[in-house]
Amino acid sequence: MRRREVLGALGGAAAWPIAAHAQQPAIPVIGFLDGRTPEALTERLRGFRQGLKEVGYVDGENVTIIYRWAENQVDRLPALAADLVRRRVDVIVSSGGPNPTFAAKSATTTIPIVFTSAEDPVRRGFVASLARSGNNLTGINFLNLELAAKTLGLLRELVPAATRVAVLVNPASALNTESMLRDIEPAVRELGLQIEIAHASTSREIDVAFAAFERDRPDALFVNGDPFLNARRVQLALLAGYYRIPAIYSGREYAEAGGLISYGSDITDAYRQQGVYVGRILKGSKPSDMPILQPTKFELVINAQTARMLHLAIPSSLLAHADEVIE
Questions:
Q1: What residues pair up with 164 in beta bridges, in sequence order?
Q2: How confident is the model over 86-145, as pLDDT tens digits?
Q3: Which one of 6, 65, 173, 301 has the fewest CB atoms closer than 10 angstroms to its CB?
């Protein structure tokens, strides 16, 4: 064989691995859009990644996750969603209230969007029905806003003499607040309560709200389920303890942070389910064919140490139904 033919053969052989490598499929990319900061979602992100792993995807190995955080600045969300669309991600995950989902929905009608929602996504206008979305959206509804009336009843059971209840809301989440107030109105009438709305959309405003509670002395506090307020759960629990106000919250993360009592769905598991749904879409499922998932478990968590600090006796009826009592 001539030298030129030998070199040509070797050159062709050397090119084989390169050609084979070029034919390998591209790693899928997930865009994760949230209105908060990553520190507020440590456990939820762990749940999300666990869900992905259950269907065969591990970040950094066979899938890439691009995170976009609005850092509690709602007006940044449309630009962040548009950036994910420009990057041609395969799926957008919207997390942290309705605003990220609205931003993602406005940015694309073709890229699949998997959301988490604290209330009925049909009422929000995200999907046409819980059985079939009719568009490029699907997701998990963990119902915490729709549990507001039940939560208010638990607060009254905790503090039977309560007649004046402060309700802390985030004015930046107007739709969230409107839905909650609509849902608790029948319970307010039935229980004979007077509610007083307090607003806070910054850490400083939370301090101001509690200073007002010290002057007005409500009998108890109801903290509305809201992404920003959840991110400030340690501050809220500490202030409620400092001002000696019995307070109820929407998820176990509050009770774990020192809050007195919480009631809501298992949100970490909801994020796990979200991860599973994203993985299924990456494998070929269509959002329009995937029903909106509903929670199957609701958790009542009581922080007994906080109760003792407040010199508050927890009724035996609540203790009997508690999923966990934190000592």
A1: 194
A2: 999 999 999 988 899 999 999 999 999 999 988 889 988 999 999 999 899 999 998 766
A3: 6
Same domain, 107 and 162: no
Rounded (10°) angle between helices 148-158 and 174-191: 50
Asked if the structure places residue 172 within a domain, the reply is yes
What total of structural domains would you count in the chain?
2
What mean pLDDT do residues 259-271 have?
93
Contact 264, 299 (CB under 8 A): yes
Token reading at 149? 């009336």
Domain that holds residue 64: 29-142+266-296
- Domain annotation covers residue 2: no
pTM of the model: 0.83
CATH number, position 255: 3.40.50.2300
* Cβ atoms of 286 and 298 closer than 8 Å: no
Kindly state whether residue 13 falls inside one of the protein's structural domains: no
Q: In three state form, how does the secondary structure of the chain look?
A: CCHHHHHHHHHHHHHHHHHHHHCCCCCCEEEEEECCCHHHHHHHHHHHHHHHHHCCCCECCCEEEEEEECCCCHHHHHHHHHHHHHCCCCEEEEECCHHHHHHHHHHCCCCCEEEEECCCHHHHCCCCCCCCCCCCEEEEECCCHHHHHHHHHHHHHHCCCCCEEEEEECCCCHHHHHHHHHHHHHHHHHHCCEEEEEECCCHHHHHHHHHHHHHHCCCEEEECCCHHHHHCHHHHHHHHHHCCCCEEECCHHHHHCCCCEEEEECHHHHHHHHHHHHHHHHCCCCHHHCCCECCCCEEEEEEHHHHHHCCCCCCHHHHHHCCEEEC
Q: Over the chain, what is the mean pLDDT? A: 90
**Domain match, 308 and 240 both:** yes
- Measured distance CA(41)–CA(251) in Å, rounded: 13
Residue 188 falls within a domain, yes or no? Answer: yes
